[in-house]
Amino acid sequence: MKPSWTFLLCLSLLVIPGTAIGDEMLTTGEVFPSFELQAHDDSVVNSSDLDGSVYLVYFYPKADTPGCTKEACALRDAWSDLKDAKIKVFGVSYDTPQSNRAFAKKFNLPFLLLSDSDKTLAKAVGAGRFLIPVPKRISYLVGTDGKILKAYPSVSPSSHAEDVLKDLSHLR
Fold first, then answer.
1. What is the CATH number of the domain that holds 21?
2. Which of 50, 68, 87, 151 is catalytic?
3. Confidence (pLDDT) at 20
4. pTM, 2 dp
5. CA atoms within 13 A on the CB side of 89
6. Count of domains in the chain?
7. Is 68 a catalytic residue?
């Protein structure tokens, strides 16, 4: 039996990145969803504790892989500028806290890596992908009021830290 064209169309919408239902990014001005995730240092980060802070939540596909290492190290290398700008940084992946711990230790990362192993936050912000077991490389810069200052749908691992600092200076 030959599949119908409507079946094939529906199937293609599920597997083409960016077209699955619930796969859209949030936009500037929207409230960033609340979350509670375990960090690589065994602490728990609760978004309600971040009220009044500016923070960057960056999603990365997999700890200790080339692009993710490049992005994390670029953020690490810009750490003093990020701290001076009073930006808290949180990397989020589906990796276990143990994998994130090893990654943070290996590359001396000064910020927390969070484990979204059940993919709840990733799905809520458009970082989840249907049939692909890693999140998209996207980021959100969140303001003191919990609203998104800037959404980054396409992130360059090597220049992301610079982009965030530049964008924040323009936003202030």
1. 3.40.30.10
2. 68
3. 40
4. 0.86
5. 26
6. 1
7. yes
